[in-house]
Amino acid sequence: MRTSALRLSVVYAASFAAALVALVFVIYLSTTRFINAEVDTVIERDAMGLLEAYGRSGTRGIISELDLRERTFSRINAVYLLTDAEGFVIAGNLPAWPVMRGRDGRWVEFEIELREGGLVTGRPVRAMVLEPGPGLRLLVGTDLSDRRDLGRRFAVAAGIGTLLVTFIALGIGYRQSQRILARVEAVSRACKGIVGGNLAGRLPVAGDDDEFDTLATEVNSLLARLARTTEILRTSLHSAAHDLRSPMHRMRLRMEQALSEDEGDGNAAAAGRETIDLLLKDVDQMQRVLTALLQIAEAESGTVGARPEPVDLDVMLDELAELYQPQAEQQGISLTVACAPGSRVLGHRQLLAQAVANLIDNALKFTPEGGRVDLRTQVADGRLAITVADSGPGIPAGDRARAIEPFVRLANAPPRDGSGLGLNLAAAVARLHGGSLRLEDNQPGLVARLELPVGAP
User: Fold this and answer.
1) Range of the domain at 95
2) SS3 assignment, position 175
3) Model-level pTM?
């Protein structure tokens, strides 16, 4: 028994067998006591009838009653004996007064010997001893052979049934242990494959809706998230390397150019300042990329330092609208805010503000002059939605899922500075709060819907 499943099956089978034996034993005792009580009742009733016969006709009455019962076989296995004080037999079907094994008041037990087929067999008898009159002894009893045979048959049948049920339980337990072992081996093979580098591997789900399927489903959800995080990390590192390499290369060229210029040239100072300004822009771009990557990593891993706190979204959206209002006016865009009553969630205010700011920034980038950007909150079915709707060109339905990935720039993106991480950060913040980010058609334009459960996270 090298497996826990098999040991558990054997323990269950043994426990079931023990319980079955105890149940059969209780049934046997109850049945035996019931039969003994019935036998005693029959003997007492029979004895009372003989005493009534004695009361009517004396000794002759008992003799007549015994002869009548012997001729009519009134009671099967009945034992009668009437003797005088000296032990001489007056009537009955016993040759002599038997040797008693034990006596309990009027009740006695003894054995009689009968010859059957040339063999002498002993038969147990339970009887009642009475004294109907002076100098008389009356014995009324019953042969218990049939009852004891029934008890032995019951014991044999119970033993065979117990063994049969035990073997069946062991067989079922072994079958179940093999099934469980097969499931465990399948999970073990899947885990080895995943540890070996196959991040697309998943634990098998048999469809039995049992605890193994529940565990496999939860682990598969964890593996899916780990795989997504790993893919995001791989893509982010790859894209970050490309995005940071160009600014660093330009910085190097500009510094070399600044060093190679003639110190006596009167325009050297102005050229140097222009070079420094360009270098600062490149440094700012790298800082934005690194900051966004750090925020995404915190949101995806759930390791945000601050504790969640109640966030009034109407206040937060008003502040963001006030922050972006000058830019919107400069571009000739109408920026409006409308919040539903009770727009409050439990979350990380700084990350939520950054996520909504990224959505507003994207909307302003893509909305042409004369367009509009609307900030809204809606509460329905226990979820709160923050929507940023614009009247720009929108995103084709086939590109909306890809637009949320890190460092993705669509073909219709304006030639402005950006890290390509804004939507990805907003999606990561939504997942941190138990929500999601969806991109929908505004006809025309785009609706970015940041959905959060009320009371998140």
Assistant:
1) 4-153
2) helix
3) 0.46
